[in-house]
């Protein structure tokens, strides 16, 4: 198991670096959208509009992803009957 982890480590580090650079790239896209829109409206309004758009896109993606989850079987609780102690209910449950 340890040998496999050592083999996978460089790929995991590369995937983490790719994810981090993707997040930074998306942040720069959002910043450029704010700066571009700031030429038309006030900068605070541009930031607000881009922020609202990103939140709505995220909410839409989350709703879409939730609707496409596989249906699971309902969770059912089954109670296990505990064997009775010879002294009945007079025994404290932790006193064994």
Largest sheet: none
Average pLDDT rating: 86
**How helical, in percent, are the residues?**
55-70%
Shape: elongated
Number of strands: 0
CA distance, first residue to last residue: 40 Å
Q: Structural class of the helices, strands and pairings?
A: mainly alpha
Radius of gyration: 28 Å
Tell me the number of helical segments per DSSP (H or I, 4 or more residues long).
2
β content, as a range? under 5%
Identify low-pLDDT runs.
none
* Helix/strand order, N-terminal first: HH
InterPro entries: Phage_holin_3_6 (IPR009937)
Pfam families: Phage_holin_3_6
Transmembrane segments: 12-38, 44-65
Keywords: Membrane, Transmembrane, Transmembrane helix
Keywords:
96 residues, mainly alpha, 2 helices
């Amino acid at each position: 198991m340890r040998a496999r982890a050592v083999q996978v480590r460089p790929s995991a580090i590369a995937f983490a670096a790719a994810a981090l650079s993707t997040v930074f790239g998306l942040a720069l896209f959002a910043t450029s959208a704010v700066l571009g829109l700031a030429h038309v409206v006030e900068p605070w309004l541009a930031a607000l509009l881009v922020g609202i758009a990103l939140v709505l896109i995220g909410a839409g993606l989350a709703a879409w992803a939730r609707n496409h989850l596989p249906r699971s079987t309902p969770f059912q609780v089954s109670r296990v009957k505990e064997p009775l102690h010879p002294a009945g209910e007079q025994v404290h449950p932790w006193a064994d």
